[in-house]
Recover the amino acids of this structure.
């Protein structure tokens, strides 16, 4: 099944002479940590190769190195194209879009007769290549290449709710909610890799992105079928987790806590805790604000058993981009959305101090009776006005 490597010894050194030229991702475009890590190929349980990815970002790096080794060593293996997809996924979830794009380009260039075998989801090379297009779009979004995303979208016709959500995700990363919204409205139904819970997972992610972008009306419209059905509509933990996160999002919005996603105007010093229910149990997120403004978000408590690094990666994305609306970690939609909703709760508490001013001269006042925050003075707008918080 796998091609063997030819080993040659030169001047006392063992040299791997691959039966093809180069690597799927050359040294000059790799992240510094990515080096091929020798491992044994799996003939049946391939998921063992990236099992450590379920734990944290370090585990994802370890799995990526093993995948690179196997991809470069076994060129004719029918599982190699899927390993390439997994390597690109790992790089994207570790926020290395440049490296991911190289691998995704290699997938799209695979000849039609390339040996390919995978039993679940991406069952033929055509489906794999189409998924690579959507992943490349996400990579361009992470790199801020809006024109490239626009160009790719023009060539695509989304076939289902999942593909609509992939486009919406890319525009959300870019901060272009106007373009994301039409696709979010169609982000439900079929297409998700987990067919049994496709509609529930798509609605969860779409509603969370809409809510974190300040579109409460659309968020609740997307979530309504789940919330109307109730937590006990299905006995599966996946359904219950989706329900409770959307219920928390609904409560955030009801308490005037849904808001746009930039955190630049946070200025009340302190540590503010928000909570949401994850896949396994409750998790807590702390937002830290100093006298210099927003500093970071981190998960302080969780019981998730397969977060695929979401516990560290999602808070890092929120902290780096100063935005609550970030892309979820692949395979950890529930955990990722729970973190975003809990972060929304915690940042709301930061805004809910009695009175504070942001660095740009805007003054806010929180009314505990109405539970609304009023903009009472703005450097850019001398007139007093009452509005929902706009974080941007």
């Amino acid at each position: 099944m796998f091609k063997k490597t030819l080993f040659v010894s030169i001047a006392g050194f063992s040299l791997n002479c691959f039966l093809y030229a180069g690597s799927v991702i050359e040294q000059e475009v790799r992240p510094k940590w990515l080096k091929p890590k020798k491992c044994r190929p799996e003939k049946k349980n391939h998921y063992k190769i990236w099992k450590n990815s379920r734990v944290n970002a370090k585990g994802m790096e370890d799995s990526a190195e093993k995948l690179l080794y196997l991809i470069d060593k076994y060129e004719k293996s029918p599982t190699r194209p899927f390993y390439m997809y997994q390597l690109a996924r790992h790089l994207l979830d570790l926020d290395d879009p440049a490296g991911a794009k190289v691998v995704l380009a290699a997938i799209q260039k695979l000849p039609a007769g390339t040996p390919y075998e995978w039993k679940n989801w991406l069952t033929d090379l055509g489906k794999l290549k189409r998924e690579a297009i959507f992943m490349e779009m996400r990579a361009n979004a992470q790199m801020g290449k809006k024109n490239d995303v626009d160009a790719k979208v023009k060539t695509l016709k989304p076939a289902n709710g999942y593909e609509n959500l992939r486009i919406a995700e890319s525009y959300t990363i870019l901060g272009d909610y106007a373009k994301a919204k039409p696709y979010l409205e169609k982000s439900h139904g079929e297409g998700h890799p987990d067919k049994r819970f496709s509609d529930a997972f798509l609605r969860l992610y779409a509603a969370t992105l809409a809510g974190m972008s300040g579109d409460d009306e659309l968020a609740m419209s997307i979530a309504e079928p789940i919330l109307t059905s109730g937590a006990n509509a299905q006995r599966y933990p996946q359904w219950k987790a989706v329900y409770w996160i959307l219920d928390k999002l609904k409560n955030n919005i009801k308490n005037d806590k849904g808001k746009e996603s930039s955190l630049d105007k946070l200025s009340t010093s302190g540590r503010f805790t928000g909570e949401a229910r994850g896949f396994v149990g409750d998790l807590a997120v702390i937002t830290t604000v100093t006298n210099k403004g927003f500093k970071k978000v981190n998960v302080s408590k969780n019981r998730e058993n397969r977060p695929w690094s979401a516990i560290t990666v999602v808070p890092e994305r929120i902290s780096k981009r100063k935005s609550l609306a970030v892309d979820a970690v692949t395979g950890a939609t529930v955990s990722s959305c729970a973190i975003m909703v809990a972060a929304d709760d915690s940042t709301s508490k930061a805004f809910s101090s009695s009175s504070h001013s942001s660095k740009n001269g805007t003054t806010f006042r929180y009314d505990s009776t109405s539970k609304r925050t009023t903009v009472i003075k703005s450097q850019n707008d001398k007139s007093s006005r009452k509005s929902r918080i706009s974080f941007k």
Q: What stands out?
A: Strands lie at 6-10, 13-17, 270-277, 282-290, 293-301, 355-357, 363-367, 372-377. The longest strand covers residues 282-290. The first helix runs from residue 57 to 73. Residues 1-21, 257-261, 354-392 have pLDDT under 50 and may be disordered.
